[in-house]
Specification:
Layout: E1 3-6, E2 10-14, E3 23-28, E4 32-38, E5 47-52, E6 58-62, E7 66-69, H1 71-75, E8 81-82, E9 86-91, E10 94-98, E11 111-114, E12 117-121, E13 125-126, H2 135-143, E14 155-156, E15 159-160, H3 162-171, H4 181-184, E16 189-191, E17 202-206, E18 212-220, E19 223-228, E20 230-237, E21 240-242, E22 249-258
Antiparallel strand pairs: 1-4, 1-7, 2-3, 4-5, 5-6, 8-13, 9-10, 9-12, 11-12, 14-15, 16-22, 17-18, 17-22, 18-19, 19-20, 20-21, 21-22
């Protein structure tokens, strides 16, 4: 068993070992994965099949965007991420622009040294789970992604899909969700009516064949934030989503799930410097 870490801001995971293949997900800077198959690392033109440790998702990644990590370092990894968009990361004294949500789980004293690669972080840190799952914090974290463009397979501020958006928001509260909407729909407690929902509950939507194809986060009983074209806020009723600009019915509501109950206590400061 061998482990790797993503060494670029956002690395695509593809269905097959080719640039033309569908991007099924992404691995963000600092996230770790297990090698399943593929060519030599740090070599241009080759691909490596990996299994992401945070959600078990598999895909092919450019080998040059990964670096080997000692097993013992992976076993001792922390739970630290970047709280805001940052240019505070240096690779061999050159700047890497990183999205919030990028991982520093392998860093110690703001540094990570691998063979030929010296990383140093001088920005703001955040440990998921340090903030409570409240109405205020759910609103604040979800709004960080507002107007992010939709991107199939995306998981970052540079481009994100509906389930990637939900997964990233919940990560801030140290709640690990599966990658795809249909997998997320298998978790939590069913909520029968929108009138019984809380901020932070997840609404799932299906297609004509009854397959779960979309998910969003309820901000209250009649508004939802979700990734559709871009991360946006729309109206919702028992039938589904209504585009707030056009009043068009865009998604058909299938079910609502509660993963965790949002508290109503205030939380004036989300991020902490460490």
């Amino acid at each position: 068993m061998a482990f790797v870490v993503a060494i670029v801001a956002v690395a695509p995971l593809r269905a097959e070992a080719a640039h033309q293949s569908e991007m099924v997900s992404q691995i963000l800077f600092g996230e770790t994965a297990e090698i399943i198959d593929g060519g030599p690392l740090l070599q241009t033109g080759t691909f490596t099949k990996i299994k992401c440790l945070n959600d078990g998702y598999e895909g092919w990644c450019q080998s040059a965007q990964l670096a080997l990590v000692p097993d013992e370092l992976v076993m001792l990894k922390s739970n630290t991420i970047i709280a805001a968009y940052s240019n505070g990361m240096l690779l061999n004294d050159t700047v890497i622009q990183l999205p919030f949500g990028a991982s520093l789980e392998l860093f110690k004293n703001h540094q990570l040294n691998l063979t030929g690669l010296a990383f140093k972080y001088e920005g703001e840190l955040f440990t998921p789970g340090e903030i409570p799952f409240t109405e205020e914090s759910v609103n604040m974290v979800s709004h960080l992604f507002l107007n992010t463009p939709y991107l199939w397979g995306g998981r970052s501020i540079y481009g994100i899909d509906c389930s990637g958006f939900v997964q990233q928001v919940y990560q801030y509260f140290n709640i690990r969700l599966p990658r795809d909407a249909y997998q997320q729909a298998e978790l939590g407690t069913d909520i029968g009516f929108l009138a019984e929902t809380n901020c932070g509950d997840l609404a799932f939507f299906d297609n004509k064949e009854g397959k779960i194809t979309h998910v969003g986060i309820l901000l209250n009983q009649n508004t939802i934030i979700h990734a559709s074209g871009r991360v946006r806020i729309d109206f919702i009723d028992q039938a589904g989503i209504l585009n707030r600009e056009t009043s068009e019915r865009t998604h058909q509501l299938r079910l609502v799930k509660r993963i965790v109950s949002a508290k109503t206590t205030s939380n004036p400061s989300l991020w902490q410097n460490k």
